[in-house]
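Reading a protein record of the kind used here takes only a little practice. The record below shows the convention in full.

——
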Amino acid sequence: MKGCVYVRTGDNPLKRWKWMLIGMAMATVPAPVSAQVSLATMVELAQRNSGAVKLAEADVLKTQAMLAQTQDAYIPNFVLGSTVGYSHGFPTGQPSVGSATMQSLVLSFSQRQYMKAARAGLEAANLRLKDAREQVALEASTEYIELDTVNRELEAAHQQETLANDLVRIEQERSEAGVDPALELLQARLTAAQLKLRRLHLATRAASLAKQLAALSGLPASSISPNHESIPEIPAVRGDATPRTLPGIEAAGALARSKSFQAHGDDLSWRRPQIGFGAVYNYDSDELNSYSTYYKNFTPNNISFGFQISVPFFDFSLRAKARGTAAEALRARVEAEQAQRQSEVQIAELTGSLRELDTLAEIASLKQQIAHEQLQAVLAQVESGNGAGAGTQPQLTPKAEQLARIDERQKFQDSLDAGFDLAKARLSLLRALGHMEDWLQELHAK
């Protein structure tokens, strides 16, 4: 049996309500939070995006080209050319339709020194690149850890602000009931205002650190959210540990050697002979001039080759250049020595401050633990109440509970501050002792 089924397609009010509810639900969904970025990823992005690292990489490419240039002086070059023109009367030049030249250096005492100087320069450039990468890693790690610390402090500050508002409410009620004077209410409001100011200061600092990390990594500032679990424990290094030579100091030493080789090469340039090789082929034509009229033995194909020996006797410009490069070599050697002494002084200063910061962190941690225990005691007394017997203390009020909670949160923030200062000093000492590479390996293994 066949037939037709008619379906009514008019507006369905239930369907309209369904889509309205879905739209309201989507509107109330919070915006997606920024994804957490690990410390290892942040350091890697900072090294890749750093202008100092890019400049150091450009210096490496430049010194590689300079080394190749000094080595290629012994490889014969090959140049093709042509000189075509018309002349009337006695020819003033060779009528070369096509020419090929070849020349190279055969023996040069100076060139050997220049090659050594270029190799030392390349070594210095690679060391400067390594030093730049370690410095960027130190800056990114320090700012990342500080942002993580500030975010944790900011969370505690929000809790403090909520507790302070509760304290103001309690004091308002006690003041209206005539239990506490108006001064206590003003003091509570002052405490709330001070905690609000600290919370605003922390929020501003967090935004500033996010901007700095964004500039280092190239990520949007709004997408940077530290992952506390990705931060490995910083080794408790000591100043009396065996220091390694920093890449920056090694680079200064390599640069001093490069300048010394350069100076020696310039000194040999006016003391030693130099031998070069050259060859020339010319295809000549007299169709546009009267060359064959004046030269009866004219031939179109001509070739010449030989060695050129240069023996300097009186070349005062080369002597002056040698004195200038010798002075540059002396300056580079002194700068390398100064860099080494400055590193030793920095290690001594960091070692002294690290002892103090270690003690301050311990004190802050003990204060936080004491505040926590005091809070637990206050909570226990508020919950159980005090007896009314002789010699017993007055029963604690909710006001005392709020003050104890606020103090505990403050000691917690102070402990975080001291911990960050200690971590920053340890990272700086790691860098000064030349152990930054160990920290980076541990970071990537985290």
User: Anything to note?
Assistant: The first strand starts at residue 36 and ends at 37.
